[in-house]
Amino acid sequence: MSAPLVVFGEDWGAHPSSTQHLVSRLAADRSVLWVNSIGLRRPRLDARDLARLLAKARAIAGRAPSRPASMPEPEGPRPARILSPLAIPWPGSRLAEAVNRRLIGRQVRRVMAEMGMERPILWASLPSAVSVVGALGERAVVYYCGDDFGALTGVDHAPVLELEARLAACADLIVAASAPLAERFAGRNVLLLPHGVDYDLFATPCARPADLPEGPVAGFYGSVSDWLDIGMLVRAARALPDWRFVFIGPVQTDVSPLAGLPNVRFLGPRPHTALPGYVQHWDVALIPFRDTPQIRACNPLKLREYLASGTPVAATRFPALTPYEGLIHAIDPGGDLTPAIRGAAQDRDGIARKAAVAAEGWDARAARLSAALDAL
Question: Which positions are tagged coiled coil (predicted)?
């Protein structure tokens, strides 16, 4: 069996992240201990953070899962063990980091001993994991960089970037999900590993969901956050009153100008396995991003999932879109989305869209990554 992994990531099952897609496949022939998130910002005394702290406390006590009830386990093998550690979420505090090194290190080593795990590879998808580097008897350190933490919403940027710089300096391998992220670590041992796709899940025909409205549908799934161009969407929805604009996912920004329109529907989160049924029955799938540093560095999973479904796509341009731009009705950020939606609705070449990502499955991505891990 290949070297075991101790993975510091987000809460297992909270959302279908690239780390979880990869690790669920690596777990087929490696012993994996998954350590749930130890936080990238100081908690605030608001309702959302208090609810999250309560959920964390229940997970630590072993009385409840840390993922939302609407989210199922990710597909594929799960880690052998999942640990919700007791930790201090206070990036930038050297005192908190010193305490976490002892506190988290002791908890992780105890579970490692129970699993019979020795000399693992320490995998960090969050810079806050730098606090335990060297405390686990690890044989190597891998930093999986899937986001621009200097621009990511909900992060204490300055202290987290300092943690990231320290983590990158001691990493034996940096895995970057996009070219802009890889460029930040020039001169180091970097593996550019774009996101994959669960091709069979999204390409296999599914029944139309009962709650999907009739008529032409332009749809989006994912976090409805401040990286979406709400003004652009409002203008498109007003210009296309016969269309239905459908959004699936948690709403994390002000959507009142959009929600007030009669042809707009917010359906809330859906399990990842249910998403193909929606996107396959939309007339056009949307990626209406603003132009931000975070978006310029991102490599959204939905891009390849949309293509695997065969559904036409209308999107704003960003670097990760470039290899597929010939298959997508793309406009510059801030432009008029209406003509792109109309053009995409006439595009029937679903076979070409599917073929473009048929060889980009998560299994292939994980195999390439596994070879890089074995070479450490």
Answer: none
